[in-house]
Amino acid sequence: MTDLYLNVALDTPLDTCFDYRWPGHGEPPQIGQLVLVPFARREVVGVIVDVRTRTEVPPDKLKDALDVRAQLPPLTTEWLDLCRFAADYYQRPIGEVMVPGIPKNLRVQKTVSLDRALKKLAKTAFPHDPAPADAPVLNAAQLEAAFAIGNADGFSPTLLYGVTGSGKTEVYLQAAAQVLANAQRTQTEAQVLILVPEINLTPQLENNVRARFPGVPVATLHSGLAEGERLSHWLAGHLGHARIILGTRLAILASLPRLKLVIIDEEHDPSYKQQEGLRYSARDLAVWRARQLKIPIVLGSATPSLETWHHAQSGRYRKLELRERASPDAALPRIRLIDMERDKPAQGLTSTLVSALKLRLERGEQSLLFLNRRGYAPVLACDACGWIGNCTRCTAFMVLHKPENRMRCHHCSLEQRIPKSCPTCGNVDLQPLGRGTQRVEEGLQQVFPQARVMRIDADSTRLKGSAQAAFERVHQGEVDILIGTQMVAKGHDFRNLTLVGVLNPDTALFSHDYRASERLFAQMMQVAGRAGRAGRKEGGNASEVLIQTRYPQHPLFGAVMAHDYDRFAGELLEERQQAGVPPFMYQALLRAEARELQTALDFLQQAADCLLHPGITINDPIPMTMTRVANVDRAQLLIESPSRPALQMFLKTWMAALRAMKTRAKWSLEVDPVDI
Ligand code: ADP
Ligand code: ZN
Ligand code: ZN
What we know:
Blueprint: E1 4-9, E2 18-22, E3 34-39, E4 42-52, E5 67-68, H1 77-90, H2 94-98, H3 104-107, H4 114-124, H5 140-150, E6 156-162, H6 168-185, E7 191-195, H7 202-212, E8 218-221, H8 227-238, E9 244-247, E10 259-264, H9 282-293, E11 296-301, H10 306-313, E12 318-322, E13 334-339, H11 351-363, E14 366-370, E15 379-381, E16 399-401, E17 406-408, E18 415-417, E19 431-433, H12 437-447, E20 453-456, H13 466-475, E21 481-484, H14 486-489, E22 497-502, H15 516-528, E23 544-549, H16 555-561, H17 565-579, E24 586-594, H18 597-609, E25 617-618, E26 622-629, E27 632-641, H19 644-660, E28 666-671
Parallel strand pairs: 6-11, 6-12, 7-9, 7-10, 8-9, 10-11, 13-23, 14-21, 14-22, 20-21, 22-23
Antiparallel strand pairs: 1-2, 1-4, 3-4, 3-5, 15-19, 16-17, 17-18, 24-27, 24-28, 25-27, 26-27
Helix pairs in contact: 4-8, 5-6, 15-16
Bound molecules: adenosine-5'-diphosphate (ADP) and zinc ion (ZN) (2 copies).
């Protein structure tokens, strides 16, 4: 009998897989099984990516594999290929793609009782279904969309372009129902994956799904799960038990052997991009996965990303439209601008906004104020000498957090007590400049002492479950005025909310980042979309959105007021084409960081000089806008090409050259970067 060697993907920074000898007892291992192996004086679990009869590793270096987790069915070839593609495309080690997504309990423990986990699964993964709910009667546009998606054949990418409140969720659910029903009819099995951008949106969706699919096993995958839960839900997906899988971006790498439909809600949302380690776009991987499996995929949004819009315009994606709000007599809110030069704000609130809030309070309707800046004030300053509270470790201000009596750097997490007097001149009258959510909350309490004001942002929802509890209180009507960051702007279906106030959108109007206006527009439409979703009540206020700005003439606001994404997107695409930026250009960004900026720049220069390639533009290395974070200086180098394959080919060769370079700088490469 010949010896068997297992080629194993391990979570290491090395861009290679490792051979182990299979000591030969028991069943021969299979590709896709998990295996426990010795590595660097530890024992770790990896994924078998090949089983071979030969190895290049010399016998004295070769180690034995310790244990194959044979109870677990192997990961499928399709899943392995997905990971291979991601590793290849994003230029990362394959093990880094495969291994971290596998639940820790399957990896770190030497022995795992899968039996026990599987038994627990039945209890934990599919708990208490809420009372079954009937689907509303779909309108014609919804019906058409749901039918088209649910019965699509093969790979068929669809943009579901529907205004906020148009009932996209209903379309997803009906399409999912059809896919599950079709499978049942043909006696096959199906799984539907639904991705949402925010972990806080999963409970609402999960309730809807469970109510509408009584008895159908549902699994959820997001970063908020405890390890035991993660194991159960992951297994539910992997074993094919779960029919519907809800998750955030990380769920795109889940093992789902019966996957038949992928749905990406709010596909434009930046949270689909992972911003560290394997910097993947869950949306892009989802499209790849759907193509690989030859299944339909739906990208839903009221404000699609320009990439997706471009594909829809060029006919590569089918476009289905929902132009009207779904609830009877719910109309899109009226959007108005308040010129802050004329109506000067007090406590951050213009008199127009205060009156509008007052009207809602009188009628018992809810209001939402959106300000994308947490903390009390972004800067603390001394009028007497000009001192400003900078972070000593970053090119950034320390943000004032008043309730906690803290100054906090949002980039390196450095904290200190709020100084009682100016560290330079002793002046005791230090001034907070600008306004964050905490300060607006304080102002609201002064202006409306009777109102029940609640703030929802990353600070107020630090504890597990607290965000869900907070949103629950809003839904239960225990809150009159909600103030929050982007956390409150997305997706939530608030039924009694008729006023949205946008407090400070202006900084994004003049950003150097060409994506800023696309994002601002999407954000405005999303947050505006929280108002008036249930239709007007007898004697109730018409729903409206008030935007406080110093630049009411800015064309972006014109498009926002007209709810005119088409025109706005068309103009932006034209600009982008002329400027030669995505989606008309493909990019990669090499980042380097070091104690000394020069070390980082030198490495990037060396990288820029080491390889020339026709059709590839290598720009100059530059320091990043926020150069210093946590005492480390950062610089970047942008690579561009009008051809994606050309860029990919270049990156392969280039990465090999970079890995061979000696430098003290830490570096990383990002493909399709979004923050440049
Ligand atoms: P979107 O995701 O497009 O913003 P939702 O799917 O959240 O919109 O739907 C908005 C609201 O309209 C929800 O409360 C939903 O229950 C309701 N709704 C959806 N479809 C219908 C319909 N056909 N008839 C009545 N109400 C509907
Ligand atoms: Zn001073
Ligand atoms: Zn800092």
